[in-house]
Write a structure and sequence with these properties.
By secondary structure, the protein is α+β, with helices and mostly antiparallel strands. The protein contains 3 helices and 5 strands. It has one domain. The protein has a 5-stranded antiparallel sheet with strand order 1-2-3-4-5, with helices on both faces. The radius of gyration is 12 Å and the shape is globular.
Amino acid sequence: MTLIESIILEYKKFATYKSFVSSNVKAFGYDKKEEVLQIKFKGGGVYNYYEFPYSEYIRFKRAKSKGKFVWKNIRDYYDYERVN
């Protein structure tokens, strides 16, 4: 089960933001306790970003362009792995 699926089943564990438009990001979820951001891209890849601070998650959630935010502020700065 992916983190995104867990969000649906364990809604209390994750902060989610479902109402957004993005040409690149399909969905995302955040595990505050573990400090893990998971992003599902429209191209099909699902990635976990580790040691991701909650304050940065808030910035990402508020970003007008999720894809640009990932490119400029997440991709080269946090350890990550593809989980699917």
